[in-house]
Write a structure and sequence with these properties.
single chain; mainly alpha; Lysozyme; globular; 11 helices
């Protein structure tokens, strides 16, 4: 409920903002349409469907207009993120400045908090582009090509492809798990491992806690 209230508050700011015509025209009408349909809906399933769509839209609003990096252009948010990554994770300025726009764009595309995505990269590879794990995970987000190459075409060592693929995987896990915390655990040990072994579940939860701590450190550095 708290997130919905926050989302509606963000939406109100966007609608009232004199320079954001797209939000004024699109999201305000979409909200009104869903609320009207909800009030007229008779069945529980239809109301549930409308609420689900409302949550999806408010999530997009948070990420695109009132994210943890604030509003503004990709360039503005990327510059802020780059400074935070340098301070929180001791990453070189050139690396932080190069990767931050990719992180912000991928986060926008898949409705992920950019700080969470940046924190996951810190946990997975410490911002080392050519990191390779014994299990065959590669790159900044440590995706495993044999599992994800079909869904993520291109060279997965390439920074844009890798971050975009990691974002895609995490967003899909969030959809399946129902929470970002559990999605992070899935990212680490896989849904099957998480649900079939208490040891793997414990490992996944530990990983999620570590990523969340990195996210907290990054937020404090902004």
């Amino acid at each position: 409920m708290k997130n919905v209230v926050k989302s509606i508050g963000c939406l109100t700011v966007l609608i009232l903002h004199p320079n954001i015509f797209f939000y004024k025209f699109f999201y305000s009408r979409l909200y009104i349409l869903i609320l009207i349909n909800y009030s007229n809906a008779q069945s529980f399933n239809k109301k549930k469907f409308l609420i689900k769509n409302l949550i999806i839209i408010t999530s997009i609003v948070i990420i695109s207009g009132c994210s943890s990096l604030g509003g503004g252009s990709v360039a503005k948010r990327s510059a802020k993120l780059a400074v935070g990554i340098q301070k929180a994770y001791m990453v070189e300025a050139e690396t932080a400045n190069r990767l931050s726009p990719i992180i912000v764009e991928s986060a926008d595309k898949y409705a992920i908090d950019p700080l969470l995505l940046a924190a996951m990269i810190r946990q997975e590879s410490s911002y080392r582009n050519y990191a390779i794990s014994p299990a065959g995970a590669i790159g900044l987000t440590q995706v495993i090509p044999r599992y994800w190459q079909q869904s993520c075409p291109g060279d997965l060592f390439e920074e844009y492809n890798n971050i975009n693929c990691g974002s895609y995987v995490l967003a899909n896990y969030n959809q399946a798990a129902g929470s970002w915390k559990k999605a992070l655990a899935y990212y680490n040990v896989g849904p099957t491992g998480y649900n079939s072994s208490w040891k793997m579940r414990r490992q996944g939860k530990k990983y999620a806690k570590q990523v969340k701590q990195h996210q907290k450190n990054l937020k404090q550095a902004l």
